Amino acid sequence: MIYPEKDANTNNPRRNALAAAIAASVTMMSLPAMAEEGSADKKSEPSEEIVVTATGREQRILEIPYNISAKSGEDLEKAQIIESADLMRAIAGVAVVDRGHRNSGVINGVMIRGLNVDGAALGDYSLSAVPTVSTYVNSTPLYANFILKDLERVEVLRGPQGTLYGSGSLGGTVRYIMKDPELEEFSAKIGTTMSQVDGSDGYGLAADVTLNLPLSETMALRFNGGKLDYDGLTDYVNVYELDANGIPVAPNGVLAPDAVFTSVEDADTVDIEYGRLSLLFEPSESTRFLLSYQKQSDDIGGRRQQTLGSDGFGRPYQDFENGSVQLEPSSREVDSVSLEAEVDLGFATLTSSSSHYDHEGDSISENTGFYAQAGFLAFYYNFPRPMASAVRTYGDEAFIQEFRLVSNTDGPIDYVAGIYYQDQDLRSTQDSFLRGFKAWWDAAFPAFTGAVSGDRDFIYRRDETFKDKAIYGEVTYHLSDTVKVTGGLRYFDNEFTNDTFMDIPVYTALSAPANPNFVVEEDDVLFKGNISWNINDSQMLYGTVSEGYRRGGANAVPLTGRYAEDPGWQRYDSDSVVNYEVGLKGSNDYQNYTVSLFYVDWDNVQVNTATNNWGFFAVRNGGEARTRGLELELNGDFTDNLSYALGYAFVDAELKEAVFRPGSTIPIALAGAKLPGTASSTINAALEYSSELNNGMTWNSRIDGYYQSSTRNAINNTPTFNVRLDSFQLWNLSTGVSTDDWSATLFMRNLFNEEGVTGVFTEAYMGTLPSAGYFGNGSKEFIAVPRSVGVALNYSFN
Predict the structure, then answer these.
(1) CA pseudo-torsion sign 776, 777, 783, 786
(2) How far is the C-alpha of 552 from the C-alpha of 550, rounded, in Å?
(3) Per-residue pLDDT tens for 301-320?
(4) Which DSSP symbol is given to 589?
(5) CA distances for 676 relative to 51, 134, 393, 405, 673, angstroms
(6) Does the predicted TM-score (pTM) go above 0.90?
(7) Residue 578 and residue 113 in contact, taking contact as beta carbons nearer than 8 Å
(8) Residue 769 CB: number of other CB atoms within 10 A?
(9) Which one of 199, 288, 708, 795 has the minimum C-beta count within 10 Å?
(10) In the prediction, which pLDDT does 657 show?
(11) Contact 170, 113 (CB under 8 A)
């Protein structure tokens, strides 16, 4: 919830909420100790800690002097997590906009420490400004939102990671580490899941297979592949019937206002196929090569988003109903190949990572509601049966080469040094159509048939290239057995080009193609400083100052001609953050814990918006913003059979300065505006019970939950975009039995059927307008997956 500010410390609800959370965490830390006093025979060891490689070398989380979390692939499998949105809700202090499968691969919806200024409803098209959280699949910097299968672990690095991970790591970095082939023995596993979601008339089916095949003593092959086939749950209840040319049917002639509507049930079908093949070659103990290929293809029938309000006939929309007048399918395909080589030189390990990926997709978006609310339909004489389609594509292709040297010696100095090269090509297109407009125009104004060229009323092509060259290094000096300091630098030199083509060709007299281009070059140095003190063998106190940045670029808008814009739109600069953090992490006989306090200054913030005159996609630099808060994680064991995890985060994130469009004195957003998408308070918790049965089976049960307080939809200074999104909580339950060879699990997700809204297109932005002939409704909420019940079966061969 949003708490009102009060002057008196004792009556400030926000401060009291924070104090209560800290008090609760202290109580949780003391619970196992109290249990020990009362029942010594139940003393147990804490859950095994995951080893991570975030700093370039294998380390326990408790050895890393900043806030990092990790989830093992086994943990994800037990929790029935295969999607990024579900994973991120299990990590303290990480927010996510859940756009569903249709938009899951276009924009990274992950936010860490509140570093986000983009509206939650973005996601239908790729943006010029890169996300504030970088993502890696092994060593490849790629956001593709793969299905989470056959993972070794996921590492979530909070705070800017500019020295080691470069551009886009303002808020943090997420690393998906896949399982390597195993040389020792053959293994195979097949799994299947069947589920039913509230609101759907059908079922969801998923199946996958994993094969590990040793080829020799030095070589092994591993394969994982599968398929998801989910019947939809969203009903498109007022879709136009279309003729053979894709134009809304006019039963009483082209000029008649009548339209024929139909309903399409469970339209948001999901069909995903994925696979990964990897070959490991270890010719000696000091040398290894890993060649990997990964692929995923998505075909999605529509949005998992429900419409607010009523249609143009006054009928209110019900749960899981979408008011679009057309279906909105999407598809995408991503291919990634990488070669990772490691050589142990004795004093250090040299790693080479070479990778190439190609990620592309397309979608059709309902734009009629936007045209209606913006007044555009009057530009088309309010012709009957308006149907505005935005046909969009995106592409992201890159080659990356990185060399990294990590010290192996036991002396007072540790170091990581590397060089990095990236050559990336980005593509984004939009063709907007007003379906049936030319046929209507030619019938209504036969003397002016040449005045309208066709149904396409907007063309946009954006081709971008980004080349990044960098050298980086971090050096750690051990001042004593318990105190060490780390300093890091990254020098980068990059070049960004943007070639754009745009036109509004629908009216022949208005067609005026524009093809602007622009080049931006930039170089700078990022820094990091850290000091840590090992209080004892199981506790560390640390402090960090680190910097992150996001590359600048060009909007390449036309400056002359019919579609000229203010020159201030031509380019945008990089933005950067400086993060100040102190933390305590440790463990005892029962638990692991981490608590951190952070303050982040964000300068020259990049805002994805639209230009003043013609609404071209563009990025605008604002002034300053800041975030501050607390993150807490606890996990451990109450008894030999009962384990727990608890996370809490408090984030206070706001603009420090108003944001203006070039040449305008009217602000896009006001100083003091809360940054969107991130809740002030989030809590995630889990309890897991496991016991051995008399028949040799293991019984495992788990309950986990997530709560977030209210958020804002956008920072814009208008209720058309900036609306409050209510708090919500999501609970999941599972129970099952297993042996060494098989497992069977019953699960229920979103137990109380919460909507879990994380974004919205408001009615003021895309609502109905019957006076202009638009009887659908384009407003919609981004909802979580409703309550689903299912069974998962797995069988292993060894």
Answers:
(1) negative
(2) 7
(3) 999 999 989 999 999 999 99
(4) S
(5) 34, 19, 26, 39, 9
(6) yes
(7) no
(8) 22
(9) 795
(10) 94
(11) no
